[in-house]
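Feature request disguised as a bug report, sorry. It would help if multi-protein outputs had a clear separator. Right now it looks like this:
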Amino acid sequence: MAYAQNQSRLVKTRAPAAAFEAAACGASQAAGGGAQGLPNMPSTTRLISSIAAAAACVCAAQVALAQNAPIPAEQRYPVTPGQRATASQVAQTGVPLSELAPNAPDSHTVKAGDTLWGISGIFLRSPWRWPELWGMNLDEIKNPHRIYPGQVLYLIKANGRAILSTRPNGGGDTGTVKVSPRTRYESLADSAIPPISLQTIEAFLTESIVLDEDTLSRAPRIVAAQEGRVLLSRGDRAYARALSTETPDAAPLTVADGRSTGFRLFRNATPLRDPSTNEILGYEAHYLGKATVVRSETRRDGTNAKGETISEIVPASLDITAAKEEIRVGDRLMPEPPRSFANFVPRAPQGPQEGQVVSAYGNAVTYAAQNTIVSINRGQRHGLEPGHVLAVLRESNTVTDTTDSARPNLRLPGERNGLMMVFRTFDRVSYAIVLDIAEGVRVGDRFVNP
């Protein structure tokens, strides 16, 4: 069964690839193989047979391209085996009506600016229960991140359970629609709704970095500027070194294969300390800009004032390509990381998690409100991943029990204060965004599984 879905931007076929490949291979063998089996065949006939074989291969390639066109979106938004298993189970029976949000609508039209977190909250009591939302419409929306503005999601309730569908009443068949052999498509990956608003966390995805002490101390640094300049900006030339008396075994700054090497510039690495132990978990570097190495760091022979031959240090030459703030001597360099996508999905951690908030950013120096970024004292080594949702607890207080003659002090249990989601992880530290909060989050507040 094949169908065509055309929303003025995408034409796609779901017919089994085996049928097309078998036809293409058969045509190729019949044309190419037949020509090889008849040595006395006229050259013109053999040429036509070769063209037919090539055309068959092109047709097979076009079908493969049509079927695989949306794959990059799936690669950007992976689905874990556990999520798939949970969603597959839910997809068969739906979810109990008790799991729905109190005001869950019968339908929702996806709009530009919607997020997966927001849509989950429309239909479910707990927005972080993403596998249920995806599982509810597993047969209709194969990948949860291919939900686009303009689509209508229908909530179907029957026999005490609920499912989500892109068709009213969850039924109906689109039938068979014939399409031309040509493939015309435009990827919708960039217009699919994101898991959360990426504008808030964009700077932390591309600029922020947390280093350990050893990496920080060995990072190359700017040692000089042209014409004795003190401050540098975009377009200026600077000079940097990786080798020093403290780091004699460091790799020198070089130009690889004639190509300039990209670096990021940082300053004022601030220590991030554990609120309970005061242990330094890492150093948060302050992003300044970008630079490229255009000439390698080397040594050359020279002469001193006495005419003696000496070895002179020649620092690497840098061109400042971007500057968020003024750059000066002493600022550090780190290699430009590979471009990464926000490929996380809201979900609960698979194992138990417990920790504390280390710091808050933006205007919230003391209290972090909704959509504020915080750092926490758990990271990759603790099993945290981008997309993990954590519950923030209100700080517990001590009170005196006036009903007891001994007047003992009581430690009240921490109450749930809101939710936050991890979006970037390092070894022992992670960044999270506060998604829902009743009272402000403070440094030292605890978090647990949602």
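(second protein starts here, but nothing in the output says so)
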Amino acid sequence: MTQMTLTFDAVDEATPGPKWAARWQRSWPAYEAWFIARGGDQGPSHADCKNALDRYMPELVATYDRLVVVAGGSDRAARFLSTWCPPTYLGGCSLAAVANKKDVRLVRNYDLSPELNEGLLLRSTWSGRAVMGMVEFLWGLSDGINDAGLSIALAYGGRSETGEGFGVTTIVRYVLETCDTVAEALSALKRVPSHMAYNLVLADASGRTASVELYPGGGIKVMPKAIATNHQSGNTRADRPAFTRTFERRAHLDDLRIKPRKLNRQFLKSPLLQDRYVQGFGTLFTAEYDPKNCALGLTIKGDRWDQSLDNFEEGQRVAHYADGSVNEVANDQRIAGYEGVNWAQAAEVDWNAVAQDYANGKGRAISAYFPSSRYAMEAVA
């Protein structure tokens, strides 16, 4: 049965440290099981993965090395984090970017099961520049924006063929860490191969927008209009088009003639908004990026959460997709519970128990799993 609740955390951490480590420990057991089940252990070696990063994305190598260390340094974790020729993964989304002389907006709907999203909005300065976006695969991004105002979002391209390349979420991270403009991003995308078919929409502070199809094993096609859903051009067949309604959503976006400031409203209603959560295809969030102000408006079941790179506030929202409610969690009650943690005691924590609690929707503050916190609670009792 599909879990109908998702916790969203807004986290600010300049470089991978205790907060990212807590997220890794929480999420890795499930990702590791997925990686093994999908044949990840039969994939490229750690050395091959590192060589691919050195060749295609050398600017990310220092961050990758640090992440591997923080994650514990295992061979499997290192190969997983590289996302070089990873197991296949799918998803559904609608994307569009619109600009005029005054404004620019990039908007996306993220359509999937609540069980399959990390719910993490992370602000970081891993390579010296500020980047903010929705995390996938623990350091990649499904969408985001950087301090130059470049914004980008991805959508599954509708076919499951694979080629030699990187997971697209790492490619999105790379673009935002290294590029200032759409033109620079397109140049990077031509050079870095994707392992599957994906569609990207981009926008920058100058008002330039673009839509790109990424092909398995490398190669791109720049599309005439900055919109995308879950299929690609040409004679390729889309995966389950009747279920995803990809053609219906694409046609709606293609017909839009709208100002940037009004684009977000279209994503908050049918046919772009999806509500089939039980079937694993509901809109988990709508992200509206404003490149001129380096800002993001995140709409979760009608509740708006505004953030910007210059004024980012950590916080938490719990979305209940069954009844449509969203609860803001007070700072001292956050499930993430990063504050007040004695990380010297991390080795004494039963991280498998932590993962099980969160998977079952019973996660407590991370600090509650640490010995000092347990002893304090026992003393009070």
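Even a blank line would do. Unrelated, but nice: The radius of gyration is 20 Å.
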